[in-house]
Amino acid sequence: MSEFDAATTAIADITGDYTIDPAHTRLGFVARHAMVTKVRGTFPSFSGTAHVDTADPAASRVDLSIDAASVTTGNADRDGHLQSNDFFGASEHPQITFSSTQVTRDGATWTITGDLTIKGTTRSVTIDFDEVGSAQDPFANTRVGFEGGVTVNRSDWGLTFNAALETGGVLVSEKIKLEFDISAIRNA
């Protein structure tokens, strides 16, 4: 039994230009805290566009700009720490950006490689996305949905703050899982 209702397919070919809908998209992350639990966060303030070409996936493109200071974990003190130079350095580096450099497709799975820039450091990241479906919403928008994720090492971007635990291990995991639930609206 599926966790959710089955996705719909409103359009056979999703080729087109899209704007990512922040109100129905989640750009999230998961970190291990004190080696015992997970802390989840999101970046609710961002803008993004995509060009999707199903016949020639290599012609597809994704660009995303995230407001680093919008990081939200449900705890104001932790959010302030994440905005500081120990982590995102949001005052000097207000934007986290992703710009695709290669797109491939295997059925409903899209693999997007691109340059992820955090705190002034750019690294290449490859993310697999599953094409969830398409729909006509009540406001006459054509929407497409994608879900994806990747695990990265935060120190690759200079996010190296940590504290040793008396029991061994560290306060914040080096590996961070990035999670993407994308709803994009086809441009008119």
**Could you say which overall geometry the principal axes of the C-alpha atoms support?**
elongated
List unreliable stretches of 5+ residues: none
How many helices? 1
CATH superfamily: Lipid/polyisoprenoid-binding, YceI-like
CATH fold title: Lipocalin
Helix content: under 10%
Rg estimate, integer Å: 18 Å
Series of secondary-structure elements, N-terminal to C-terminal: EEEEEHEEEEE
Relevant terms:
188 residues; mainly beta; Lipocalin; eight-stranded antiparallel barrel; 10 strands; elongated
What do these coordinates show?
The chain is mostly beta strands and 188 residues long. The chain has one domain: Lipid/polyisoprenoid-binding, YceI-like (Lipocalin), CATH 2.40.128.110. The chain contains one helix and ten strands. It has an eight-stranded antiparallel barrel with strand order 1-4-5-6-7-8-9-10. It is elongated, with a radius of gyration of 18 Å. It starts with 15 loop residues before the first strand and ends with a strand.
Please outline the helices and strands:
Elements: E1 16-20, E2 26-33, E3 37-42, E4 46-52, E5 61-67, H1 76-83, E6 95-106, E7 109-118, E8 121-136, E9 142-153, E10 172-186
Antiparallel strand pairs: 1-4, 1-10, 2-3, 2-10, 4-5, 5-6, 6-7, 7-8, 8-9, 9-10
